[in-house]
Amino acid sequence: MSFKDLPDGARPRERLIALGAGALADAELLALLLRTGLRGKNVLQLAQELLERFDGLSGLLHAGLDDLRQVKGLGGTAKRAELAAVLELARRAMAERLKERAVFDSPGAVAQYLQLHLAARPHEVFAALFLDAQHRLIAMEELFRGSLTQTSVYPREVVTRALHHHAAAVVLAHNHPSGSVDPSRADQALTQTLKAALALVDVRVLDHVIVARGSTLSMAERGLI
Q: Band of the pLDDT at 8, cuts 50, 70, 90?
């Protein structure tokens, strides 16, 4: 069932043109990407079921292609590819914004950027945002991956990558698949170790951000840097 099967007042495309994209609910925007539903289920119903299955729009956008393949109605490649493309566009748009201005001029953008990259990973990932002297983003790199509970981070490798990018500062980041963003003692100890190692090559650690689905924590704001 496609848009033409919906009542006139419920068609997302027409509502978007008349009212603007901001007036549409998440399910309506998603329906515009999906375009068609299933037999006995219109496209808006399919969109709402997807949001519920993946715990919202963020969870859906973080779902892997294999996860989407298991959903009836997304078995083909076209819709899954379009959802993956939307996520990549969002990442690139965030990266462009962070490259244009100091990261702490837009802390919300940093949090959103890290959410898009790390929040839904099933295992821990440690990453670093390498910044220039004006604290604009040069590059983000995922440096280490671990199990659900821990990851091994090597200070020498972090220092090497900072020198490679000629970085003046870094923002460290990692995810907690458990869902809690509270920093552990190990997180705090690692932060101090990396801060000391990077200081030897005149690179400042500005923050260490912990990411989980739907939330982030800045260790700098907690006074832990």
A: very low
